[in-house]
Amino acid sequence: MDSLIVRAAEIDDINQVVSMYEWLFAPPGARPAQWDAGRAAAALRHAVASDGAVVLVATAGEEFVGFCTGYDDILSVRFGRRVWVEDLAAHPDRRSLGIGKRLLDEAKDWARGRGATHLELDSAETRAAAHRFYEREQPSWRSICFGWELYPGKGPSAPADYLA
After folding, report:
1. Phi and psi torsions of 64, nearest 5°
2. Strand ranges inside 16-130, DSSP E
3. Is residue 154 part of a domain?
4. What are phi and psi of 162, to 5 degrees?
5. What is the CA angle 37-57-42, rounded to 5?
6. For position 148, what pLDDT does the model report?
7. Looking at the domain assignment, is residue 69 inside a domain?
8. pLDDT averaged over consecutive 10-residue blocks of the chain (164 residues)?
9. How far is residue 22's CA from residue 31's CA, in Å, rounded to a whole number?
10. Strands 80-90 and 63-76, how do they pair?
């Protein structure tokens, strides 16, 4: 993809980036119950303005064809500085054209430039196509990630109406 440009997102890109999250919600993904586009836009504005985060966008001509968010927020006792890729997606009609690779490579470069020793991400077990891509990128290791949803002030689990 010759005309592909990967760059740091700007504030004017935020609405476009929010709309690209729909790609992550399509099967085998799912829309988080607490998803709110306004909150997402605010979080992206914060990330774009932050020294400790990067929002990358990939464009082909005028079309947005991918995005990646990375956060430099873990200073591990065992491993040193780690950067976490939170979201990485390519346009569904443009997958396997090198967009994800370019975004991941740029995230790695950003992390290295900050002195990170590791770049990590997790991926839902249902995302077999994404896993094939990550395997082609020769990760240093694989692991299993476990997660718990936390509901502030609601105890160990939220009542059914918490997300309503």
Report:
1. -80, 125
2. 53-60, 63-76, 80-90, 118-120
3. no
4. -60, -40
5. 30
6. 85
7. yes
8. 89 98 95 93 97 97 97 93 96 94 97 96 91 92 88 58 45
9. 8
10. antiparallel
Q: Which of 3, 23, 8, 19 is nearest to 97 (CA)?
A: 3
Which of 43, 37, 63 lies closest to 55, judged by CA?
Answer: 43
Asked if the structure places residue 24 within a domain, the reply is: yes
Whole-Å CA distances, 144 to 24, 51, 130: 20, 29, 15
pLDDT at 34: 87
Nearest to 105 by CA among 6, 10, 18: 6
Domain count, the chain: 1
Residues with Cβ within 8 Å of residue 128, at least 6 apart in sequence: 28
- Residue 161 forms part of a structural domain: no
The Cα-based distances of 109 to 28, 33, 56, 105, 119 in angstroms read 29, 33, 12, 6, 10
pLDDT given at position 10: 97
Residue in the structure block whose two tokens are 């936390």: 150
What CATH code is carried by the domain that includes residue 121? Answer: 3.40.630.30
Q: What whole-number distance in Å separates Cα of residue 60 and Cα of residue 86?
A: 23
- Expressed as residue numbers, the domain containing 76 is 4-136
Q: Are 121 and 88 in contact (CB under 8 A)?
A: yes
